[in-house]
Specification:
This is F-box domain-containing protein. By secondary structure, this protein is an alpha/beta fold. It contains 21 helices and 22 strands. The chain is elongated, with a radius of gyration of 30 Å.
Length: 614
């Protein structure tokens, strides 16, 4: 049996000192004895907080070549304002001191070389828990490298304060908090695609009241509201004016069992072509909620449709995709199929399947579907097994169904219940388009071209071109006053409208940069936060200290890993994620608007760090 090699006692003290962040705690530790004083001062005391310009290559080269010093850095703040002072260790050396005295040339553009030097230094900052970036990056490749490095620090990274990407066109947030909604309202004026899941009442009301995204083309909202709540009533009052301000909307998805559904008059949303309303408590007919003008333009429809609403559906002669979330009778549904010649995808459930004559209703449905020659996906849950039928009979029935549906020249996938299990069947065709067989497909394969809210809708009806007004240059001490105020509009053309994509989900954030260049514009910092988990952090810290002690004991007493595990010292810290995602967490959030001031109280520290985010 092999035993872990014992660490020198100085290395153990060093690891314990790395866990301390406050200078007050470090000084108290240093005053205990002369050995600790030589250990703490200056290596630990001065290497906890770094604030400087990204172009300080001497700083990043120094930290990249000295991993022990970089290991203890807890906070890194990249600044671009020449009025902000650097904060660097006094023992850095003569060259950094000279640059600190004369400053740095801010006219120098940030290059990939600067990003590479900074990335090498950032990799050595094992205990980094706060990262603030107020500078414009050099390229998307450099951004990706930095995010991949930060992704490996999910065990310790607690606060992330970064720029708002002015090329941001798509944003997805799950469980957004109030500061994130404020960031969307005030700083993300270029958004074209916005997905907000599990949005609470207060944040939803703020979004509806103050947001004015002039280029918004696709909106998905999932509200987390209790039934018959006052919050829902308030949101329904401001939702119609919100939709009036966003006349560029092409796709609108309102998801949730209790989400308020606004009344949309004829003048509302003149470009709308896709709508999804999943509120199962809708008591009004859809013809009352939607005007005839809106219905005549719809290409995608996802709503709970009953037999009463079938007459409304017959007006949708341009419909391409139908997703019905309610069960309906086959005899009420078949007249709709004969009046939608452009239909490609149909999703629906039928009451007849649960009755004794379900096979007859299914045959009538297949006959009606054969009239829609453009169909590519049929998800109507054809049931091939009722009761205790043998598997051979089910297979023969599936083969017969495939031959019948193969008469549709464009059909790719359909849904069946085979052997009491829902499955997806893909049709195979030869080079001439004739039916040659079938295979059982996965969910991912059958829904591959359905993700992203039906991309062909945006292809048919493109969003407005991007001519983005550059926001007014704000100083470090300036605050936001009127949420609806705007700076002087300046025309700027974005060469790539899909320049940026940022996704935040369950307290994790991932950034994707599908292009190779970024427009040179002012980048404004923003803040993303999630719920704190102090107990987990403290427990992990204690376990790490105990693990270090157990390693030392294992080298002296020759006790194996089994013995240390019995003593409770063999526990390991939760491993970090392997995917490029960031754990974003803060301890407390101060006042919101208009000052955007946030207060962070870090563990193992008695000092508050106050950072102003413009």
């Amino acid at each position: 049996m092999s035993y872990p090699e014992a660490l020198p006692i100085h290395n153990i003290w060093d690891e314990i000192a790395f866990l301390l962040e406050s200078t007050k705690d470090l000084l108290s530790f240093a005053l205990t004895c002369r050995v600790f004083k030589e250990l703490i001062i200056p290596d630990h005391l001065e290497y906890r907080y770094i604030r400087c310009d990204l172009r300080r290559q001497d700083v990043w080269k120094f930290l990249a070549s000295r991993p022990r010093l970089a290991r203890g850095i807890k906070t890194v703040e990249l600044i671009s304002d020449p009025h902000e002072t650097d904060r660097l260790p006094q023992t850095f050396g003569n060259a950094p001191g000279q640059m600190l005295q004369y400053g740095i040339d801010t006219s120098i553009q940030i290059t990939d070389e600067h990003m590479e030097f900074f990335g090498n230094a950032l990799s050595n900052m094992v205990f980094l828990n706060t990262f603030v970036w107020k500078q414009e990056p050099a390229s998307h490749q450099g951004i990706n490298n930095i995010f991949h490095i930060l992704a490996n620090k999910t065990r310790c990274l607690e606060a992330l304060s970064m720029w708002t990407l002015t090329g941001l066109t798509k944003l997805t947030i799950r469980r957004p908090n109030f500061p994130a909604i404020q960031m969307i309202v005030h700083l993300c004026s270029e958004l074209k695609d916005l997905d907000l899941w599990e949005l609470t009442g207060a944040a939803a009301y703020y979004l509806m009241q103050y947001a004015n995204l002039k280029y918004l083309g696709r909106l998905t909202l999932m509200l987390d509201l209790p039934s018959f709540s006052s919050e829902g009533d308030n949101i329904s009052m401001v939702m119609t004016p919100f939709l009036d301000r966003h006349s560029t909307l092409v796709s609108l998805h309102l998801i949730g069992r209790t989400i308020p559904i606004p009344i949309m008059p004829a003048s509302c949303l003149p470009k709308l072509h896709s709508i999804a309303l999943t509120n199962t408590d809708i008591s009004l007919q859809l013809s009352y909620l939607l005007s005839d003008e809106i219905l005549s333009r719809l290409v995608h429809w996802q709503c709970p449709v009953t037999s009463v609403d079938i007459s409304t559906l017959t007006q949708l002669d341009k419909l391409v995709s139908l997703y019905n979330t309610e069960e309906i009778f086959v005899k009420d549904f078949t007249p709709f199929l004969s009046k939608t010649p452009n239909l490609k995808r149909v999703f629906s459930k039928f009451v007849d399947y649960r009755r004794s004559r379900g096979d007859d209703a299914q045959e009538k449905l297949i006959t009606a579907l054969l009239q829609c020659t453009n169909l590519t996906h049929i998800f109507c849950d054809f049931r091939l097994t009722t009761g205790k039928k043998r598997a051979s009979e089910s297979t023969e029935k599936l083969r017969h169904l495939c031959e019948s549906l193969s008469a549709l020249p464009n059909l790719k996938y359909f849904e069946v219940t085979l052997n009491n299990k829902r499955q997806y069947v893909g049709l195979e065709r030869d080079e001439t388009g004739l039916y040659s067989g079938y295979h059982i497909a996965t969910w991912e394969e059958s829904h591959h071209d359905l993700e992203g809210g039906l991309q062909d809708i945006l292809d048919l009806f493109p969003l407005p071109p991007t001519h983005i007004p550059i926001p007014k240059d704000r100083g470090s001490n300036e605050t936001l006053n009127d949420p609806r105020s705007e700076g002087p509009a300046k025309s700027h053309s974005n060469p790539n409208p899909e320049a940026q994509l940022l996704t935040i989900s369950d307290g994790y954030a991932a950034a994707h940069s599908p292009t190779d260049s970024i427009s040179k514009r002012t980048l404004v910092p923003s803040m993303f936060t999630s719920s704190p988990r102090r107990k987990t952090k403290v427990k992990a810290t204690i376990n790490k200290i105990l693990s270090l002690i157990s390693i030392k004991n294992s080298g002296t007493s020759k006790s194996g890993p089994e013995d240390s595990e019995k003593r409770g010292l063999g526990k390991t810290v939760k491993p970090h994620l392997s995917m490029p995602m960031l754990r974003v967490r803060t301890k407390s959030v101060g006042s919101a608007l208009p000052s955007y001031r946030h207060s962070f109280i870090h563990p193992l520290s008695s000092r508050d760090y106050h950072k102003t985010v413009v």
